[in-house]
Design goal:
Structural class: alpha/beta
Largest sheet: 6 strands, mixed
Helix content: 10-25%
Oligomer: single chain
Radius of gyration: 17 Å
Strand content: 25-35%
Length: 171
């Protein structure tokens, strides 16, 4: 899709908790705000516009694309993004992961899902954070077996310093 639109986590200063509206019961648990909510909403809107331009159906491509949400982390981002894209997509939800708590185990788990629907169609994989990219690579490899016409990956946040799969680019 062109220029990567994921927010690079390294670009954000630490915003003081007092500069944002947060539920009172979280105040003692928060050290700082990493990314303000309005910045996230703005990026979701930008991504949805970008995807709309690339995914609107044409006479040459009558099948609607398949949008795959990588669970659990991406659910809210996925739902917001798809709602704003103005493109009719088939939604699939796929349980995947490599984390135990806050640390990656290095082992990627792919849940059971019927991927026959992606054959010959454009696929948009949506994840919340591109961290090591191992999970995204395994997902892409599993999808490739089912011969989609194209696979693209959209993420809200990118952690380039943790990347272990340098050849896997975000779209």
């Amino acid at each position: 899709m062109g220029k990567q639109l994921a927010l690079d986590i390294r670009e954000f200063p630490q915003f003081p908790v007092d500069n944002s509206a947060n539920p009172y019961n979280y105040r003692d648990d928060l050290k700082h705000i990493l990314i303000p909510e309005n910045w996230i909403r703005s990026r979701v809107a930008l991504l949805s516009q970008h995807i709309y331009k690339n995914y609107r159906q044409t006479a040459q491509d009558p099948d609607k694309p398949v949008a795959i949400c990588l669970l659990e982390g991406a659910r809210t981002f996925f739902d917001d993004l798809v709602a704003q894209m103005s493109v009719d997509v088939q939604k699939l939800y796929w349980e995947v992961g490599s984390y135990a708590g806050t640390e990656s185990t290095g082992e990627v788990r792919l849940g059971d899902i019927d991927l026959r629907a992606v054959e010959g169609r454009r696929v948009l994989v949506v994840d919340d954070i591109a961290d090591t990219r191992r999970t995204l690579k395994r997902v892409r490899d599993a999808l490739t077996v089912h011969n989609p016409s194209r696979i693209e990956i959209a993420c809200l946040l990118d952690k380039p310093e943790r990347r272990l799969e340098p050849d896997l680019e975000l779209d």
